[in-house]
Amino acid sequence: MKFHVRLKELRQQQNLTLRKLGEKAGVSYSILNSIENGRIEPSKDVVIALAIALKIEDREELLSLAINPSEG
């Protein structure tokens, strides 16, 4: 699974809008929108911030999806 697909899935499971997730993670809406639509790959720091905002315990899963986009 690609990172942006997993991110959208996790966000929707928690009934969060892109704006709300962005506020919680400290990531701008436009950047988050671009990540979720697969236009850009997030940095490690952004992935960690998103994992914290989404209360994801297994951050390694998200990091591996983001770091190895071709394997997703």
TrEMBL record:
GO terms for molecular function: DNA binding; DNA-binding transcription factor activity. PROSITE patterns: HTH_CROC1 (PS50943). It comes from the Bacteria. This is HTH cro/C1-type domain-containing protein. GO terms for cellular component: cytosol. InterPro entries: Cro/C1-type_HTH, Lambda_DNA-bd_dom_sf, TransReg_Diox_bact_type. Keywords: DNA-binding. It comes from Paenibacillus ferrarius. Pfam families: HTH_3. Residues 7-62 form the HTH cro/C1-type domain. The keyword DNA-binding applies. The lineage of its organism: Bacteria, Bacillati, Bacillota, Bacilli, Bacillales.
